[in-house]
Amino acid sequence: MEKPDYQIEGMTMAVTNMEQMLDFYSNTFGIRFKERKMEDFRLYSGVWGGMNLLFCPAELAGNTATQNRHQFDVVVTDLEEVIKITSKYGGSPMGEKNEDEYTWSIGIYDPDKNSILFKQLK
Q1: Is 74 inside a domain boundary?
Q2: Taking CA 46 as the corner, what is the angle to CA 40 and CA 51, rounded to the nearest 5 degrees?
Q3: DSSP track, 53-77
């Protein structure tokens, strides 16, 4: 029996602070969101790095988590610029920048307190 081939098509995030999250992800990653309505709720969809991304109100999703429902690891070309941009749009550092043999990195919380690990290759 052959093992299945997996490809991630998209991700849905349960969002608490919708306006701040839209501002952060639009301005940090250049995502253009489109509004969709479902009953009395507004959802927002966009494409990030070829992956469909859907912001769903946490209330609709029934999600009561208050922090870190996932973590992205994102490779960037200019870590210092990413730190400036994320801070400007509501991101907050999880600690200091780190350095190892191959990368510089820093963890950043988005406005809903999901962590993103940004890495710049040396």
Answers
A1: yes
A2: 125
A3: EEEEEHHHHT----S-S-EEEEEES
Q: Cβ-count burial of 60 within 10 angstroms (0-12 exposed, 13-18 middle, 19+ buried)?
A: middle
pTM of the model: 0.83
Q: Please give the mean pLDDT across all residues of the chain.
A: 91
- For residue 114, being part of any structural domain is answered with yes
Model pLDDT for residues 81-116, shown as the tens digit of each residue: 999 999 999 999 999 999 999 999 999 999 998 889
Q: Are 66 and 22 in contact (CB under 8 A)?
A: no
- Looking at the DSSP assignment, which residues form a beta bridge with residue 119? 75, 105
| Residue 55's CATH number | 3.10.180.10
> How far does CA 32 lie from the centroid of its chain?
13
User: Could you give the number of structural domains in the chain?
Assistant: 1
Residue 7 has pLDDT above 90, yes or no: no
Which domain range does residue 47 map to? 10-59+70-121
